[in-house]
Write a structure and sequence with these properties.
Layout (H helix, E strand, L loop, with lengths): L3 H15 L4 H13 L30 H6 L20
Amino acid sequence: MTDDIDMHRIAVMESIVWGQDWSRLGDGLIARVSAAPEEIAVMVAEADGAELAVAYLHVDASDDSAPILRRLGFHSVTTTTPYVWSPPQQP
């Protein structure tokens, strides 16, 4: 996205998601992209303004996201437990 109007749409979306005023984000994105257009890319996934209906949404996020997701009408159906595997060191 490169148009100013799109940057302001992102700010509106963020305000809705977070339940706070994020209007400053639009101007901030515009300034950053203008200052370094070859270094910054702003990408957003949209569905032509249509609402999408899905049965399940996989969210890999911290516990901080839970209140936001609940406020948007989601509820947890399962959880995951992350594991890290380290190969044994060779002697």
